[in-house]
Write a structure and sequence with these properties.
Blueprint: H1 4-25, H2 27-32, H3 36-44, H4 48-61, H5 66-73, H6 79-92, H7 98-104, H8 111-127, E1 148-157, H9 163-178, E2 184-187, H10 191-199, E3 204-219, E4 222-235, E5 238-252, H11 258-277, H12 281-288
Parallel strand pairs: 1-2, 1-3
Antiparallel strand pairs: 3-4, 4-5
Helix pairs in contact: 1-4, 1-6, 3-4, 4-6, 5-6, 6-8, 7-8, 9-11
């Protein structure tokens, strides 16, 4: 069965085969050309046969700028030139050409060109070095001098201000400040570390936190933000004690930007956490027994 497309493509492909045959005959002469000649011919010649030959020469000789020129030629108006450019990119063997080849596949109207694009893509993929695989992060190990483990439990924002945002601030600040505790290691939920603690018979205490208050007031040109945090200390679901702390931050000026306002709130929460955990080493050690 014959169609207009198949006749048109047959003529285009026949022209390409003819050009390929001619290019073989003139291979020796083409190799003697300067590198700039095929680059210029591919970019500037009005004769598609010259552009086809220039593309094939670039694929064989691989001068500087060949890949970029051939990638540009993938958008040439003539399908024979596009086939030659895709073929030449496969000859170059540079995997950096893959994005350009893949980008031209979806919009390519010629089935013959599309087939060559796919073939060149497959060839370059096979030639590409395997992607480097990131090694897994090393497993955490409890330091030998640890005497107990502090596990971060439930973090609540009971202030009614900025809900989830300040709850995350509370958790991050608790994690950061608790790392300063002597003879302790801080974890969220790490089964491997908990198993290590059990194997070494290390006590685990859980810190549950609640941001119970976040209020602001203005005195003259100064905005004050007060925060209060309370912790409960548990071991094996048994309440062992409580910790609490507060802090106040100040912002000056008749007006304060939203960003500065939010920063005052977060600094107040962090200050309250620092206040609650300052000097808590001894109490937590007792709770861990």
């Amino acid at each position: 069965m014959s169609t207009g497309w198949s006749r048109g493509f047959g003529r285009a492909f026949g022209v390409l085969l003819g050009v390929l045959a001619i290019s073989v005959c003139v291979a020796a002469a083409a190799l003697a050309q300067t590198a700039t000649t095929p680059l210029r011919e591919l970019a500037e010649s009005s004769d598609f046969r010259v552009r086809v030959n220039a593309a094939l020469v670039l694929g064989r000789t691989a001068p500087d700028g060949a890949r970029e020129a051939l990638e540009h030629a993938l958008g040439d108006a003539h399908p024979a030139v596009r086939i030659a450019a895709a073929t030449a990119l496969a000859f170059l063997g540079d995997p950096l050409a893959l994005p350009a080849l893949e980008r031209h596949v979806p919009g390519e109207p010629s089935p013959g060109v599309a087939a060559q694009l796919h073939a060149s893509i497959e060839r370059l993929r096979q030639a590409a070095p395997p992607a480097e695989v990131e090694p897994p992060p090393p497993a955490r190990v409890l330091p030998p001098n640890v005497r107990y483990v502090v596990r971060l439990g439930t973090m609540r924002n009971g202030s009614g201000v900025r809900g989830e945002e300040l709850r995350r601030v509370l958790r991050d600040s608790t994690r950061s400040r608790a790392r300063g505790l002597r003879d302790a290691v801080v974890i969220d939920t790490d089964p491997a570390l908990l198993r290590q603690a059990a194997d070494r018979h290390l006590p685990v205490v859980t810190l549950d936190a609640n941001l119970v208050q976040l209020v602001e007031s203005r005195v003259a040109q100064t905005l004050q933000v007060q925060a209060r945090v309370e912790y409960t200390v548990r071991r094996d679901q048994t309440l062992r004690g409580t910790l609490s702390g507060g802090a106040t931050t100040f912002g000056s000026g008749p007006t304060i930007s939203d960003q500065a306002h939010r920063q005052l709130e977060e600094d107040a929460v962090d200050g309250a956490v620092q206040s609650a955990l300052r000097g808590a080493d001894q109490g937590l050690m007792v709770a861990a027994r």
